[in-house]
Write a structure and sequence with these properties.
Blueprint: E1 7-9, E2 16-18, E3 21-23, H1 40-52, E4 57-59, H2 68-77, E5 86-91, H3 107-121, E6 126-131, H4 140-153, E7 156-162, H5 168-180, E8 186-190, H6 203-211, E9 214-215, H7 245-252, H8 255-271, H9 275-285, E10 293-294, H10 299-306, H11 315-322
Parallel strand pairs: 3-4, 3-10, 4-5, 5-6, 6-7, 7-8, 8-9
Antiparallel strand pairs: 1-2
C-alpha cells in the first residue's frame, strides 16, 4: 500500500500519534450468530497492513475478545520494537462472574487488571490507559490516586477517559482534583462522534478544547452507515455487526441521516474518494479532533479507510459536511 500516515501531537502532551488510530474491538469478537468476527490470523494481517501504511497507534481493551485482542496484539509485537508503537487499552467492565469487585474502577480491580493487561500484551508499560466508563460507585479520589500510581511507577504513560458525553462535569472535577493534589490528570478522551452522532458538539468539545485534551472519536463511520452501503429504498440488508440490528436500524436509517449521507456522497464524488474516506477526512480536518479510530474486518476495508489520509477537503466542503445535520442546540430552535 503506497501510503505513509503522518503523526499528530496528542493534545498538550509530548506524545506524537498516528493521524488515524487502529481499533481492535473486532478481534476475537463473536457475532450474535456465534461467528468469530476476526480470528487470530486475520488480526495479525490487519495489524501488519496498518503497520505497512505507517500506522503505529493501536487501540484495544481488556475485555475485547475476552482478552484475545490484547493477547494477539502482544504476539504480533513480539517480533517488533515495542517503543515504536503507541498502545492504548481500557478497563472497567466485569472480568469475573459473580464477583462484585471484579468490575468498575475500584483500586483492587484496577491493579489486578493492569497486571493482566501487561501480561497479555507482553509489555511492561501501556502508552495510554483509558477508563472505559465512569464509575459512580467508586469515589474519583480513589481511582485517580490509583491511576496516578500507575503513571508514577512507569507502567502507564498517559491517562484517558472513554465514552463520557453525559459526564463532562465529572471529568472536569476529576482533573481539577488531580491537579490540586499534584496527580496525573486525564490527557485524552474517546467519545462517540461522527457526522450523524453529534451529541458531543457544544459543551463536551468546548471543555476538551479549554482543557487541551486530545479527542479520539470512536465509531467515526456510524457503525457502517457512513460507508454509503445502505440506501433509503433497501434499508438494512445482510448481517449487521451491531448487537441489536433493530435498534441500529431505528437509530441510523432515518430520513435526517440519509440527508447527511447525501452530502457525504456528493463530496465523495467531487474529491474522487469513497463516502467512508470523506467521513474520516472530516475528522482529520476538524480542529477539535486529534485522530479518528477506525476498525475493519478485512485488509481491503482497512486500506480503504486509511486512504482517507490522502483526501483533502476544501473549506466549502468541510462546512457543507459540518452543516449537513442540525447540532444539538439547533434542533430545538
Amino acid at each position: 500500500m503506497n501510503l505513509e500516515l503522518d503523526t499528530v501531537r496528542m493534545g498538550e502532551t509530548g506524545l506524537e500519534v498516528s493521524e488515524i488510530a487502529f481499533g481492535t474491538w473486532r478481534f476475537g469478537r463473536e457475532t450474535a450468530a456465534g461467528n468469530l468476527e476476526t480470528d487470530r490470523e486475520t488480526a495479525h494481517d490487519l495489524l501488519s497492513a496498518y503497520e505497512a501504511a505507517g500506522g503505529r497507534f493501536i487501540d484495544t481493551a481488556n475485555v475485547y475478545g475476552g482478552g484475545d485482542s490484547e493477547r494477539w496484539i502482544g504476539e504480533w509485537l513480539e517480533e517488533r520494537t515495542r517503543e515504536e508503537y503507541v498502545v492504548a487499552s481500557k478497563v472497567y467492565w466485569p472480568t469475573r462472574e459473580d464477583d462484585p469487585n471484579a468490575s468498575g474502577l475500584n483500586r483492587g480491580h484496577l491493579r489486578r487488571q493492569l497486571d493482566l493487561m501487561l501480561e497479555r500484551l507482553g509489555t511492561d508499560y501501556l502508552d495510554i490507559l483509558y477508563i472505559h466508563r465512569w464509575d459512580d460507585d467508586t469515589p474519583s479520589r480513589e481511582f485517580m490516586t490509583t491511576l496516578d500510581e500507575f503513571v508514577t511507577s512507569g507502567r502507564v504513560h498517559y491517562l484517558g477517559a472513554s465514552s463520557f458525553r453525559p459526564d463532562t462535569w465529572k471529568l472536569a472535577q476529576a482533573n481539577e482534583r488531580a491537579r490540586h493534589h499534584d496527580r496525573e490528570p486525564f490527557s485524552l478522551t474517546q467519545p462517540r462522534y461522527n457526522l450523524v452522532d453529534r451529541e458531543i458538539e457544544g459543551e463536551y468539545l468546548d471543555f476538551c478544547r479549554e482543557e487541551g485534551l486530545a479527542v479520539f472519536p470512536w465509531s467515526p463511520l456510524a457503525q457502517g452507515f457512513l460507508t454509503g452501503k445502505y440506501t433509503r429504498e433497501e434499508g438494512l440488508t445482510g448481517e449487521s455487526t451491531a448487537s441489536d440490528s433493530n435498534r441500529w436500524e431505528e437509530q441510523y436509517l432515518t430520513g435526517e441521516n440519509f440527508e447527511t449521507l447525501d452530502v457525504v456522497r456528493a463530496v465523495a464524488e467531487e474529491t474522487g474518494a469513497t463516502p467512508a474516506q470523506v467521513a474520516l477526512a472530516y475528522h482529520r480536518h476538524h480542529p477539535d479532533v486529534t485522530a479518528p479510530l477506525v476498525g475493519a474486518r478485512t485488509v481491503e476495508q482497512l486500506e480503504e479507510n486509511l486512504r482517507a489520509a490522502t483526501v483533502e477537503l476544501s473549506g466549502d466542503q468541510f462546512e457543507r459536511l459540518e452543516g449537513s445535520k442540525a447540532g444539538p442546540f439547533e434542533r430545538f430552535l
